[in-house]
Amino acid sequence: MFKRGRVLKSFLFICLVIGNTSCFNSKDSENSPKKRLAEYISKSFSVKKLSERDELIEFLKGDVKNRLLSWSDEQFREAFIDSKREFLKLVILESKVISETEVEMTYELIYLDRGRGIDGKEHLAKITNKKLCQIVLDQNQWYISDVKNIKELIEHQNELALP
């Protein structure tokens, strides 16, 4: 009987832990870190005018927010509006719960970049960025508080390569 009680208590504890962390991992959750990151990335690829900077800032907190706020209009325009980026895929590689109010996510962001080369011609490249993102909970809302680049892969399309 003693073992059965311990097993039951262990089972209930595991259920409680899973239940408490499910808000961090649930795909269906209206307010999850994964969903919040995906919304930010989607928004960043759809920016069409300077006034949308405020919408991006609503996703950010701390240093990353201050960095975006400090950009000039020209820097913002070049990075978000004039860039010819086409979103392809977001893959969450790892999601690590640090505490009830902090989650770290490693993800890959894949997109096409139609930039201009030195020769003035358009060049197509597939970019894969692996990033580490810190997301914090503040007043029942998740915010991106830090993003670090881990690795970047650039695959030039239709480029002549010499040995």
| Low-confidence parts | 1-28
In the CATH hierarchy, the architecture is Roll
* Distance separating the two termini: 74 Å
Decide which structural class fits the backbone: alpha+beta
Major pleated sheet: 4 strands, antiparallel
Provide a short characterization of the protein structure.
The chain is α+β, with helices and mostly antiparallel strands.
Helix and strand layout, with pairings?
Blueprint: H1 2-25, H2 33-45, H3 53-57, H4 62-70, H5 73-81, E1 85-99, E2 102-116, E3 122-138, E4 141-156
Task: Describe this entry's structure for a reader.
The chain has 163 residues and is of the alpha+beta class. The protein has a single domain (29-156), classed as Nuclear Transport Factor 2, Chain: A. The chain contains 5 helices and 4 strands, in the order αααααββββ. The protein has helices spanning 2-25, 33-45, 53-57, 62-70, 73-81; strands at residues 85-99, 102-116, 122-138, 141-156.
Short key terms for the protein model shown above:
alpha+beta, disordered N terminus, Nuclear Transport Factor 2, Chain: A, 163 residues, 4-stranded antiparallel beta sheet
